[in-house]
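Bench log, entry 3. Co-assembly request; chain sequences pasted below exactly as received.
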Amino acid sequence: MNTQELVDQIHQKKSFLCIGLDVDLDKIPEHLLQDEDPIFSFNKQIIDATHHLAVAFKPNTAFYEAHGVTGWRALEKTIHYLNENYPEIFTIADAKRGDIGNTSSMYAKAFFEDLAFDAVTVAPYMGKDSVEPFLAFENKHTILLGLTSNKGAFDFQTKILEQEQLYKQVLKTSTTWHNSQNLMYVVGATKATYLKQIRALVPDSFLLVPGVGAQGGNLQDVCSYGINANVGLLINSSRGIIYASSGRNFAETAAKAAQDLQGQMQLILDAM
Amino acid sequence: MNTQELVDQIHQKKSFLCIGLDVDLDKIPEHLLQDEDPIFSFNKQIIDATHHLAVAFKPNTAFYEAHGVTGWRALEKTIHYLNENYPEIFTIADAKRGDIGNTSSMYAKAFFEDLAFDAVTVAPYMGKDSVEPFLAFENKHTILLGLTSNKGAFDFQTKILEQEQLYKQVLKTSTTWHNSQNLMYVVGATKATYLKQIRALVPDSFLLVPGVGAQGGNLQDVCSYGINANVGLLINSSRGIIYASSGRNFAETAAKAAQDLQGQMQLILDAM
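Structure output for the full assembly:
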């Protein structure tokens, strides 16, 4: 999917919501555990109930790998289900990969070709030749960890690297990489006040913003600093939506939680 | 496996060789492609032919994920085969994971419990709360990316972060984390001259050293700067061993390549 198609979808749905499919068998409704593939059953129902309210879905691979082959199969079924039934949805593998060149190419192939995700999250620590193999895929998007939402972000990311905070060096340097037009960035909602400075460095890029809801980030703050002419934001919510209820009505309740966020986004978009 | 058992194995085998199982279907002997599971067939024969020359095996997960469910099953079979037949071997999942706390716990569970690896490689960018969930597992080892072997290492890792190079900050800060005794570090063999400074920061830790051979690193240099009283080094070779031949004799040829490195290690160990 190219960026314009994503932007069009945002305006059509009046939403820039991304729903995180972080499926934990301890948290999904009990009655699903008897299904042949409880993870996929859960995802399918969440997707069917919320696809019109969200523009992106983001499975975090950790939750699938934790179940080995069974989990990996559930991930495959989920992305195939999305691609077949809702081809307009922007799909993100939240994998936070990053390795030396030839190995990064294997990861890129795995997520962009075999699984056919639109985007994958990538860690910057290993630098240019660890990220460029992902950038080589046309109409695929590499979402680089910029300033993450967790406490540990202050361990290194906000430290001064040659007169500038490390995460800013990451943003600036990454814009010089080959095919950098395929980059987006992860910026935690809990770091909303940093967004003004981030927008000075990457004014046009899309930002994937986790941390609204459970982690305490605020949608209004994120939007007031981070929105650009293309909206340029994907706000992710995982637990706040998918675990809104653990009863048989979980999918409807998830849709209500998604609708609540989408409603707030609509007000913001209408005011643009 | 605890560190002492690893050290004992090093002295017993006169080797600190780690063999990287980076299996690429384009590079393995053609006759294996007819097998039901070519990746596992290849690994099994490499392991059987070289286990007495190496103390560790390290599959890089990218090469398995590239084949989806089939690849993940081959990874499971490989680690089970190692654990059942060669329980003395130190097993490393080269996964370079790292995510926020609860998600890192899922990765730790996947690699330490479900797959029962002894160690996993982890990226430091997200800081303390992204690494500590791995450190919580007793007798399991977290190998943090320190100074990697690729060119991109110079993009950020060697830049000055608050008066000190980033990778040094990573090493120093990581020693303050809870259960830091379970840490090891990735240090590229191509960065051998940095090892003296690295040893000043982490004198007692094991270092996993990729980059000898194909990437141009030199074993003598690495040892002269990096060895400590416990040896404290695991030298990884992947392509140089497993693809030494693409004929039917690939496993024997791999053993010869492994023996060549092991022989050099024996001389170094005998001189200690």
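Chain A touches chain B through 56 residues (CB under 8 Å). The first helix of chain A runs from residue 3 to 13.
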